[in-house]
């Protein structure tokens, strides 16, 4: 087979591979932050916090038998900043670094007010007593008792953003960020700081589409093929 025909065969193979390649789930990147507005810890009120992360939307639920709560070890990348302190995904306890999705699970704030947690991002810092939780909650008047309809991991960045920012919704309850310290022997977090969520955005991670890569490869191959034909 001469070089021209060989190039044509390569082009044909690339096209077939592109058509047979399954569409992959696209990760979602989240960027959020605010300031601490209440503190019972060493963190001063007014201290800034920020959380940036990427999670994989195809991650399986580690609680498949619980229809009211989904637990997903989905983080691909994470950076948490509390004042001057920076924590990354490598600093977290793997089994406690999770995205939680709740469907129709009521909670009580201790003052008699009922609400429903909807989605939360959390983790615990290894070799320390520190942990964090970013949570969005809706009131118990939400239609059907839940705003999502299932505990599936959210794969739509617009939907995720609205849960943290759509405060005009009649069912919106609160969003907050909690950085806590679990004391030895405690089962509840008595030492913590609460932060406001002043910004929140979510978007699909930008990755080259398979078709774009194929077109680029085909273009390069065609240029090589034409050059080969001229030489021959």
UniProtKB/TrEMBL annotation:
Keyword annotations from UniProtKB, A to Z: Signal
Q: Which InterPro entries match?
A: Ice-binding_C
Coiled coil residues, start to end: none
Q: Where is the Ice-binding protein C-terminal domain?
A: 206-227
Q: Which Pfam families match?
A: PEP-CTERM (PF07589)
Give the signal peptide as a residue range, or say none if absent: 1-25
Which NCBIfam families does UniProt cross-reference here? PEP_CTERM
Protein name as annotated: Ice-binding protein C-terminal domain-containing protein
The record lists the organism as Povalibacter uvarum
From the broadest rank down, the organism's phylogenetic lineage runs: Bacteria, Pseudomonadati, Pseudomonadota, Gammaproteobacteria, Steroidobacterales
